[in-house]
Amino acid sequence: MHDVIVGVAGELASSLGLVVEHSFEDWPCQYCINRYNYTHETVGSSGVQTHTDSGFLTVLQEDERVGGLEVLDPATGEFVPVDPVAGSFLVNIVDVGTAWSNGRLHNVKHQVRCVAPVARISIAMFLLAPKDDSVSSPESFVDADHPRR
């Protein structure tokens, strides 16, 4: 699975025009299975409070039977539901990704809301920052219009 998330990060870097000067191979991953045991009494309540993830990116396999993930629309300040799509993964840029891209990519505030009285399961893969190294923007992301942050 490490190869999958590293591949996604590499493709993201390539899509931004970054020449293969950067590798994510040594960046660690963390995996998490989330289970929310919702009941009739918890419908409408928050399963996870509003937050951003702290790594580089998150790849999420949503529960295809029940939604609940919501992202904050920065233009309106309102949360928008992210409906699950069967057979797909959701990729979020997160805090380190914003720093690494020198602000060209933006992390997303999100939360999970109970929408039905059923168990909801999701699987998350997090690409984290290197433990023994600092993260900085590649030189190609720094220019007069985008000074280093």
Automatic annotation (TrEMBL):
SUPFAM superfamilies: Clavaminate synthase-like (SSF51197). It comes from the Eukaryota. It holds the Pfam family 2OG-FeII_Oxy. Residues 25-130 form the Fe2OG dioxygenase domain. This is Fe2OG dioxygenase domain-containing protein.
